[in-house]
Structures are given as C-alpha cells and as structure tokens.
Amino acid sequence: MRRITCHPRALTRRGCGQRLLWVALSVACSSPLVGAEVAAAHPLPPSRTLLAGVVSSAGQYPSWNRAFDGRLRLRMVFQAWAFNVDPANVLDGPGTPMISWEPWRPPPLGTPIGRQGAPQRFYSNSAIAAGKWDSYLHRWARAIKAYRRPVILRPMAEFNGFWYPWSRDPREFVRAWRHMWDLFHAVGADNVTWVWSFQVDSGAQPGPWEQQVEQYWPGRRYVDVLGMSLLRFAQGGPVPFYLDQLALAHQLFHRPTMISEANVAYGVRIPWLIQLRDGLSQLPYNEGFVWSQAPSRQEAHNPASGDMDWDARKDPAAAALLASIASLPR
User: Fold this and answer.
1) Under CATH, which number does the domain 44-326 receive?
2) What is the pTM of this model?
C-alpha cells in the first residue's frame, strides 16, 4: 500500500480553516488514481446535503429529527449478536437503517475498559471466519435482501482500540470481515453499504497509527465507506487533529468517509460543534455524520471523562449547530 511521506501537520499553517483546506487539496491531488478508486460499489444513499443520522430507537427518532430541523436521514442502532433479535425489528422504522454490528455479549456499564475488551471466544473473529456464525449471518443477509432498500452495516467498529474483543488478532479480523462480506454477496444482499469504522486516540501519531490501522484493512473490494468515531470527552484533542487523521485514512484507502459516531462532553459542546461544522464544510470526500448520545461506557467507568449523556434535544444552541452540520452540502 502506498505510504504518505509527509503528513499534513508537518507544514506550518495559519488557523483551522487553512489547515483543513490544505489537507483536502493534498488528498485530492496526491495520486492520479484517487478519482477512480474512490467510487464505491455500494455508496451511501444519495442526498444533496451531508447524510445525517442519529443513534435512536424508532420511537425516539421523530423527536431527534425535529431537533435536527427535519434533516435526519439515518437511524443507527447498536446491535450485539448475543441478543439475537429479529432483524425485522431493527430494519423497520423511520430513516435508513444503519447497524453498528457487534459480535459480543456486552459487559455491564461501568466495567473497566481493559476488562471490557477481554476475549469472548464464542464471538471471536476466528469463529466468525470459520463459519460458526453462518446461520446467524444468513438470517440477517436474507432479511436485509428482502428489505430491498439501502442498509448501512458498520461491523466491529473501533477495531484498532483495545476496549472491544474483536480488536484482537488483526489477521483474523480481516478473515472475519471478508467472510461476512462474501456470505452477504452469495445470498444476494447487495443493498448493503459496508462501513469500516476506526477510532483515533488524542495522542495518535501518523506513522504508528497508520501502521496499526492498516493491519485491519480488508481491502477495497470489501469496504465502501471509511467511518471514524469522533468522541470528545472532557479531555481530548481539537477537532482539526481528528479531521487530519480522517484525511490521512482517505488518502491511504481511497474511499469516501463519514463521521460514524460523534459526541462531545457537555462543558465544551458549543465551541467543539462550531469547530466541527467549520471543519466538515471543507472536506469534500466526507459524506455523512452520525450523532450518538447512547449511554457512554467510558463515562460510566470514569465520571471524570465528562458528561456525555446530556441530551441535545433539550439544548437549543447545540441542536441548532447540529442542524447546521446536517445542512452542509454533500
């Protein structure tokens, strides 16, 4: 895979806007193949503005849509395999369904992060790759095929962290991902957009981060969109730092991007959302944004992480900023 020899932060620039403009231009001009390679087999559904979504039940979705000034298009749910729910109960409802698919049995909220990522052999990458979950996968693939409309799958998100069991053994992760993709296509569930969703630590360095995340890359055939979690706790880096990493991933893997899970601690929400809106407005390859105020495992374990469970629907200033992000042109 082609390496980036000069990270955007190596240059001296003035201000957030100029930094992100340089990143966008450098990505667009970095390779004569980028234009051809960006086209995904199953892109995100079309929209004139940023494809905006929220983590929500079907019942709560209308109130979130009002907070977003009617601009929501996606409804994301976290689906743990251990719960074995009927796929129809997840797919039915308002908005295009986006499923954050999690092969594990979730531990209780408040479990220390290190223990949360302990191996779960029953749900392991190697078990998935070996076909031990094929009956479960077939059930979902057939249900999604029958649904006919677009579905977005985000399997095994934040794989390059250490707080989920699927982060273990990148080689088996790749085998598991390809096995799922192959099975869905064999069934004919071709209405799926596959989102490969990574995370970025506030102290991430471009070289080591790039080497780590590449280990989990299944290949362009198996990925339609690059997702990034953007969760700003009480302590963390500025928005441009994370968007620079998103630009780096886009240049490495030649796929469009989306912010596949975003939230911010209450105390810094307004300046952070302003910075995010301004930054995303300058990223032509970013096509989506999902707001997530699901219960925070990090906050439950460490309250000093900040209040992540505030409700933007009850905060007019924050809701207006979220609506302005959702109105950005795509």
Assistant:
1) 3.20.20.80
2) 0.87
